[in-house]
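Batch manifest, entry 17 of 40.
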Amino acid sequence: MCHAKYGCPLFAFAFRSGLGQSLHDLAEADVAAGNADFVWVHLDLSDAAAQAWLRRRPWPPDVVEMVAAPIQRGRLFIAPDRAYGHLRDFRDEPDAVTLQAGSLCVVASRTLLVTGLRIPLSRLRSCYAGWKPIRSDR
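Output type: C-alpha cells
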C-alpha cells in the first residue's frame, strides 16, 4: 500500500505540536496514532485493505459497520469517547448533469479522525494536492 498521491486507498496526516506530517500507509498511521497529538486518516472505502484496517479498530462492531458500509443519509451519533456516522456529501462530477449524492463516513475521537468515501482517492487530488504542513497557533 502506498500514499494516495500515487493512486492508493488512503491519505493520512499526523499532527505533533501543531505541525502536520504526511503518512504513507495504514501501518504508519497505526504507529503515529501512538505518539502524535492527532491523526487524520481518509480512506477509499471501496478498497479491501481500507476495509480490513477499519475492522481491526478497537471500536464497537456497530461503529465499524456503520463506517465500513456507508449509506446516503446524514446521521451522527455521539458516544462518550467518539462521534461517528455519516454526513451528506455532494460531488460535482465533470461529466454529470447534476450533483452526485453520497455519504462521508466519519469517526472522531480526541486523537483520531477517520473519514471515508466510496470513490477512488485519485479523484480527490484537488483536496490534498496543495496541502503543506502548517504550524497552528493553539
